[in-house]
Amino acid sequence: QVQLVESGGGLVQAGGSLRLSCAASGRTLSTSIMGWFRQAPGKERELVGTITWNIGTTRYADSVKGRFTISKDNAKSTVSLQMNSLKPEDTAVYYCNAREVVTGTNYWGQGTQVTVSS
Between β-strands 10-13 and 112-117, what pairing exists: parallel, antiparallel or unpaired? Predict the structure, then answer.
C-alpha cells in the first residue's frame, strides 16, 4: 500500500503561482510513476503531468507545458507541482497519483483545491 497526502492548494489570482506537495509513504516507490491529475466541476479527471520515481523523467499535458513543473525529493519521498502563470481554467481539485509500473496498481491522494480568480 502507498499513502499519498497532498498539501498547498488555495486561492490565487490569475497570473500567480502555487506549489503543491505530495507526501508519499508506505511501500517502495522506486518502480512507480508519480503523477498529478486534476478535476474541474462537471469535467472528467485529466492528467496534468508525470514523473518517474527512479530517474525523474517528466511529461506534461499541453495545457500546462511551460507553466507547471513537477519535481521530486527522494530523500523526503515527496513530489511537488510548481504552478506558475495560473489561469482561471486551472481551477480544479488536484490529485496526486502513484502508479506501480509492474502491477498497474493506482494509488490516490485525497485531493487539494486550487482556485484561480480572474
Answer: parallel
Grid cell, residue 3, equals: 499513502
For every residue of 20-45, DSSP letters joined together read EEEEEEES--TTEEEEEEEE-TTS--
In the chain, the largest separation of any two C-alpha atoms, in whole Å, equals: 43
Encode pLDDT of 14-66 as tens digits.
999 999 999 998 877 777 899 999 999 999 999 999 999 888 999 999 999 99
Residue pair 74/56 in contact by the 8 Å Cβ criterion: no
**103: part of which helix (H) or strand (E)?**
none
Backbone dihedral angles phi then psi of residue 76, each to the nearest 5 degrees:
-100, 0
Please state whether beta strands 92-100 and 112-117 pair in parallel, antiparallel, or not at all (unpaired).
antiparallel
